[in-house]
Amino acid sequence: MFSKPVVFGSGAFAKVIAALLGNIVESIDCTAKQTIIPKNIDGRTAYIAIEDNGLREHVFCRLVEARAKLPPFVAPLAFVSPYAKVGEATVILPGAVVMPGAIIGRCCIVGMQASIDHEALVDDQTFIGTGVIIPRRIKIGSRCIVRAASFVTRDVHPGSEFGASPSALSA
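^ that's the sequence the OP posted. Answer follows.
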């Protein structure tokens, strides 16, 4: 029997995945760690589209315990080299480019139009915003946030935030 994939999340990323999959998806709102994991999730495909690293990690761990299938989601208009590695439960949104030799860990989000160059490393549970450029051999640690439109010029330590909010810049 066919079971609909489940998208966990209620924001823009979840809506993008649901739109790309069409009406063959079930959506579950995830705004707190009390998110209810369906009892029938065992063996079903689930995608985690939650921007908050901590909440995304929490839902990921609960879905692993519930034995959900957590493949990466690569949007049809994204390019991921067959020579790149993408971890389970990672979401790669439209327009993103992942070059040969790049490694993206599990349970990450790679925003629209982001570019991850040759041999770059994005570790687990990391959020890469829209339009981010990660050049060759740069390493982004686990649980990082790289804000939209950032050009990463150095390695980013685990748990760090990189990039400035455009609204925070002075005129």
